[in-house]
Specification:
The protein is an alpha/beta fold. The chain has 2 domains: about 140 residues, 3-Layer(aba) Sandwich (Rossmann fold), CATH 3.40.50.1370; about 150 residues, Aspartate/ornithine carbamoyltransferase (Rossmann fold). About 40% of the residues lie in helices and about 15% in strands. The chain has 11 helices and 9 strands. A 5-stranded parallel β-sheet has the order 7-6-5-8-9. It has a 4-stranded parallel β-sheet with strand order 2-1-3-4, with helices on both faces. The structure holds phosphoric acid mono(formamide)ester.
């Protein structure tokens, strides 16, 4: 069967292993397309997509827009900071006004968890969640899995560590769901205050010692400290966090094997990861960004029913 089991991509929680494999395999074909001299295919030339970003983004917004253009879709971009949301318009009114202009698919980032799911029940368009609060960021998890699979092959039995601010991270939750569905072992590592209490109930291992975690894993996915989502202090100082959980080249080189380093961006260089590590030959951070375009092409192509 070469169809997705869902009409919208709201979270990895709602899709199957078959869906994930289908998206990653389709993305492999699109990666070949975007590396050709002519990087475009006409697959979505009859489709209009609106990118609604109610929260800041660099990578995700550009990546979706480029993916849409590579698929020949018509694209409209909306940014909350320069829209009538500032005058008090509701989410539903904003979206319905955009849909009245005959939009077929909506890619949305919003600071509220559940915003994409709410929208999917209210409007007649395909919805892609581009990050909803601290809930899910499904296309990030898919591009992360694609990037790991490129380096390691089948992820079944591979050991993946997610390190840092797990509590405020939508990337962590989507990665946990995705990696577990692909059969990988997942461990989270960080200060206890930044690890949610429910996490072990998801079948994830917890470790507070960074060196032990790095010695265990094949891949370390280093997350940013999300200071913008922290209304209280979760650790004494950034300096102390970096001393205990920052990854530098001395620590990386002292490990008994060569591990892969990932980061979803934006990076706080010198906090969770040093420049030397981010730019090292063990880092696949820019591969993740490149693969994001192919993976998002695959998601929109399949949601549009073009398998
Ligand atoms: N990885 C990620 O979501 O980055 P942006 O916030 O820049 O989109």
């Amino acid at each position: 069967m070469s169809k997705l089991s869902v009409n919208h991509l709201l979270g990895i929680k709602y899709i199957t292993k078959h869906d994930i494999d289908l998206i990653l395999d389709t993305a492999t074909n699109f990666k070949e397309v975007i590396n050709r001299p002519i990087k475009k295919v006409p697959s979505l030339r009859d489709l209009t997509v609106a990118n609604l970003f109610f929260e800041n983004s660099t990578r995700t917004r550009l990546s979706f827009e480029l993916a849409q253009k590579r698929l020949s879709a018509d694209v409209v971009n909306f940014s909350a900071s320069s829209s009538s949301v500032k005058k008090g318009e509701t989410l539903i009114d904003t979206v319905n006004n955009i849909l009245a202009m005959k939009v077929d698919m909506v890619v949305m980032r919003h600071s509220s968890a559940g915003a994409a799911e709410f929208l999917s029940k209210k409007v007649n368009a395909k919805i892609v969640n581009a990050g909803d609060g601290a809930h899910e960021h499904p296309t990030q998890a898919l591009l992360d899995a694609f990037s790991m699979r490129e380096k390691l092959g089948d992820l079944k039995g591979k050991k993946i560590a997610i390190i840092g601010d797990i509590l405020h991270s939508r990337v962590a939750l989507s990665n946990i769901f995705c990696l577990q569905k692909l059969g990988a072992e997942v461990k989270v590592c960080g200060p206890k205050t930044l690890i949610p209490k429910y996490i072990e109930s998801l079948g994830v291992k917890v470790e507070t010692n960074l060196r032990k975690t790095l010695e265990w894993c094949d891949v370390a996915n280093m997350l940013r400290i999300q200071l913008e989502r922290q209304d209280i202090k979760f650790f004494p100082s950034i300096r102390e966090y970096t001393m205990l959980y920052g990854l530098d080249k001395t620590l990386l080189d002292s490990l008994s094997k060569k591990i892969i380093i990932m980061h979803p961006g934006p990076i706080n260089r010198g906090v969770e990861i040093t420049s030397e590590v981010a730019d090292s030959d063990q880092s696949i951070i820019l591969n993740q960004v490149e693969n994001g375009v192919a993976v998002r092409m695959a998601v929109m192509f399949l949601l549009a029913g073009r398998q």
